[in-house]
């Protein structure tokens, strides 16, 4: 069933060249062009807190990390761990897509895995190599955990809009 809900993608916060945060319904999209810092994750934490109050059914979070992004700072990694722990029971899905290949992408994946292990988070976290893998996974998983539906086509359109956003 077609929907015009894709037009409800809203930019919540941005720091040009660094990151942008968008929301559609109860899905938070975090687009990173540079590695996260403590102050940027403080901003993300405020957004996440607001969404938690607005969506008791749960919130899915999608991190889209550009190949040009460096590793997050130690403060950012600590903040991610705090966010994982705080919203463990109210997060629907957590998806991370690392653009690029090789050592950089492997280092990013290792950092995410390390943070997740530190907080013993067993939520629906998946790390993807590309957007088609994410599109095949998230809509079904999100619906199962929140009862909020989004088609694969709708989700693809949202991802295209977020990834096409100018730094």
Topology readout:
Layout: E1 10-15, E2 19-24, E3 27-32, H1 38-54, E4 59-65, H2 74-86, E5 91-98, H3 102-118, E6 124-128, H4 131-146, H5 152-164
Parallel strand pairs: 3-4, 4-5, 5-6
Antiparallel strand pairs: 1-2, 2-3
Helix pairs in contact: 1-2, 2-3, 4-5
What proportion of the residues form beta strands (DSSP E)? 15-25%
Count of helical stretches: 5
* Topology order in helix (H) and strand (E) letters: EEEHEHEHEHH
**Overall mean pLDDT:** 83
Number of domains in the coordinates? Answer: 1
- Coarse shape: globular
What is the tally of beta strands? 6
Report helical residue fraction.
Answer: 40-55%
Q: Distance between the terminal alpha carbons, to the nearest Å?
A: 33 Å
Largest sheet: 6 strands, mixed
Low-confidence stretches: 1-7
CATH architecture: Alpha-Beta Complex
**What is the CATH level 1 assignment?**
Alpha Beta
Q: Specify Rg, calculated over alpha carbons.
A: 15 Å
The assigned structural class equals alpha/beta
**Order of strands across the main sheet:** 1-2-3-4-5-6
What do we call the CATH topology?
Protein-Tyrosine Phosphatase, Chain A
């Amino acid at each position: 069933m077609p929907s015009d809900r894709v037009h409800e993608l809203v930019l919540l916060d941005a720091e040009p060249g660094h990151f942008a945060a968008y929301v559609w319904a109860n899905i938070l999209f975090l687009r990173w062009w540079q590695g996260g810092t403590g102050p940027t994750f403080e901003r993300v934490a405020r957004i996440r807190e607001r969404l938690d109050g607005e969506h008791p059914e749960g919130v899915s979070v999608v991190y889209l990390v550009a190949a040009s992004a460096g590793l997050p700072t130690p403060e950012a990694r600590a903040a991610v761990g705090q966010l994982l722990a705080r919203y463990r029971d109210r997060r629907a899905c957590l998806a991370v897509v690392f653009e690029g290949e090789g050592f950089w992408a492997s280092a990013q994946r290792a950092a995410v895995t390390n943070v997740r292990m530190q907080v013993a988070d067993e939520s629906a976290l998946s790390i993807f190599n590309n957007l088609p893998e994410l599109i095949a996974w998230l809509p079904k998983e999100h619906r199962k955990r929140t009862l909020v539906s989004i088609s694969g086509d709708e989700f693809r359109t949202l991802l295209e809009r977020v990834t096409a956003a100018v730094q």
